[in-house]
Amino acid sequence: MIPVIISGGSGSRLWPVSRQLDPKPFIKLADGHSLLQNTFIRASNLTNVKAILTVTNEKVHFRMQDEYQQINENNLPCDFILEPYGRNTAPAIAAACLFIAENYSPDETILILPADHLISDFEAFKAAVDSAEEIAQSGYIATFGINPEYPETGYGYIESNNKEAIAKGYSIKRFVEKPNLEHAREYLESKNYLWNSGMFCGRVDVFLNEFKTYADRLVKATNNCLTHSKTDTLNNSKIVHLNRELFLQPESISIDYALFEKSKKTAVLPCSIGWSDIGSWLSIAQTLPKDKDNNAIIGESVLHNTKDCLIYSTDRIIAGVDIKDLIIVDTPDAVLVADKNNAQNVKIIFERLKKMEHHTFELHQTAYRPWGTYTVLEEGPFYKIKRLELKPHAAISLQKHHHRTEHWVVVDGVATVTKNDKKFELTANQSTYIEIEMKHRLENNTDKNLVIIEVQCGKYLGEDDIVRFDDKYGRTKE
Questions:
Q1: Which of 14, 41, 163, 250 could pair covalently with 18 via S-S, beta carbons 3.0-4.6 A apart?
Q2: pLDDT tens, position by position, 254-271
Q3: Is 251 contained in some domain?
Q4: Residues 167-204: b if buried by 16+ CB within 10 A, e if exposed
Q5: pLDDT tens sequence across 312-351
């Protein structure tokens, strides 16, 4: 089996922790692992897993590699298909099937897993995967239907035909969009409806045959894109950089619409696995332990007469006095206060920030790069102060800027600096000045992290004022 982790979307309802370039799969939960890491751990601990393939946006690739390296105890190959932009789930899954057919085998069984789900009962999940494999080996694609626990209006539903068994599952009557509360109650009482989890299991050749039958243009366009895409090798893994122009050709459509609502080779597997689609702050609150007043808390807080709240803090203490039914989420550059009963409306704020082109919709103060992180400490109209932390044996690209100068001060570690044709080392409390249009590079050639304070000055300080000449992470095309 090859699990395929699908990670896309911005998680707008989980702002301000989830951002466009720091999406919700990276959100850390109470166990210290991110949603992405929990998905990887579940997948890697299944039986007979050969490798794990991830389909995601190219801008978060290195962050994902770092997260996987922290937990990849079985040393599994971690292949990546990197999208230049999102095109929904059907092109992503088609690309995964074509990649596995080419690099592994057309008769491999694949398990499609969204990166942002929470599953609390691993043994039940493992048993469900075993049953799904039986369905897959009988020539069908299994979709995991979650036995509903309450009348949820935020999920899609699947109506199963309980009289027509397929291995340990059932045939599917229809897929249903997110219902209103009245219909959700009817579905719950009928016992024929299941929550649509968005997880699937099937043989690659069956997936591709169904794609060719019901979405032939999409799979041909995706295959053409893959054929003309660059592939790198890292350790024992492959990394595919999808062709930016050709990836516009496959239709942007969900796998449900493109395939599952049409296919006659699908089956639903009812299961109870402690599943939750972490789509809002309310759904996160439901997964957390509660105090005596039913408050869900992550971080440090002091509360008085506070009930039924979610309190989430990253680096400050939150004090709550005489409040109820609130969501309070604190990050270094943004604070959310919302009515708990209207948690879905957080996405409206996200969309407004995006329309305003406000930086808080896209990035945190601390941004992740292939070489490490940078944190914006302070900024004004003509200056910006950053803290850069380079990982061992990492380097920024050889680059120049048209509009700004930079002053680097070494705080900790040993920096190797390139300025035009000169190369030299700096240690703690030493500094150097980078002029406009000067080619420069910062490297960490040691086994410990390098910390730099960078002061930028100029009329324009945007991150796009970078001309790259050479880059070990393949970003010169930008």
A1: 14
A2: 999 999 999 999 999 999
A3: yes
A4: bbbbbbeebbeebeeebbeebbeeeebbbbbbbbbbbb
A5: 998 899 999 999 999 999 999 999 999 998 888 999 999 9
108/252 same-domain check: yes
For residues 135 and 209, state if they share a domain.
Answer: yes
**Per-residue model confidence (pLDDT) at position 477:** 57
Return the bridge partners of 416, or none.
Answer: 425, 443
| pTM of the predicted protein model | 0.87
**Neighbouring residues of 369: CB distance < 8 A, sequence distance ≥ 6:** 62, 396
360, part of any domain: no
Least confident of 6-20, 87-101, 349-363, 444-458: 6-20
Domain range holding 452?
A: 366-470
Note the pLDDT of residue 10: 73
Which alpha helices (DSSP H) does 191-308 contain, by range? 204-214, 216-227, 255, 281-287
Percent of the chain with pLDDT over 70: 99
**Pick from 251, 277, 303: which residue ends a domain?**
277
Distances (CA, A) of 185 to 162, 197, 261, 271: 19, 18, 23, 19
- What are 118's strand-pairing partners? 276
Of the given ranges (111-115, 280-284, 438-442), which has the lowest mean pLDDT?
A: 280-284
Task: Measure the CA–CA gap between 44 and 49, rounded to whole angstroms.
Answer: 7
Overall domain count for the chain: 3
Determine the Cα–Cα distance for residues 217 and 234; give it in Å rounded to an integer.
32
Domain assignment present for 357 = no
Same domain? 213 vs 105: yes
Coil, strand or helix at 372: strand
Query: How far apart are the C-alpha atoms of 318 and 328, rounded to whole Å?
Result: 9
Amino acid letter, residue 244: R
478 lies in a domain? no
User: What six digits make up the tokens of 317?
Assistant: 């203490």
Give which of 5, 216, 6, 207 is closest to 109, Cα–Cα: 207
